[in-house]
Amino acid sequence: MRKTKIAVFGAGAWGRNIVRTLGELSHLAAVCDPSGACLEAARKLVGEKAKDACWTSRPEEILDDPEIAGVMVATPAETHYAVGKKVLAAGKDLFVEKPLTVDLKEGEKLVKAAWSRLKTSNPFRPSVLGVSRVRDRKSVV
Prior knowledge:
Elements: E1 6-9, H1 13-24, E2 28-32, H2 36-46, E3 54-56, H3 59-63, E4 70-73, H4 80-89, E5 93-96, H5 104-120, H6 126-137
Parallel strand pairs: 1-2, 1-4, 2-3, 4-5
Helix pairs in contact: 1-2, 4-5
């Protein structure tokens, strides 16, 4: 079974938790952070479990990689909107740590962009159908 390749933006304290988990699941494809020290700390955390992962300070390396299916964002909250928008524009699946954004209007724009992307992916995939039902009910329960 082919593993989905996922990248992480942000290798600070919380980002390293995500890096560790993805490394243990063999899904970690890349990690991006402007801090070399944070990248190195994350790399040491996963060791050989992610020996083929890309470690970079350049987001374009990840956004331009067609093998990477999704990006998990664990950057400072005030960057979530700008980073998330770029991830979606690159055609990647997106997960953003809380808070989604620090501005309600930006959060709404990001959700709208994500829904637009979802509609253009496989609309009959069970996960897409389930998320669509939640959206239509405007409730998760």
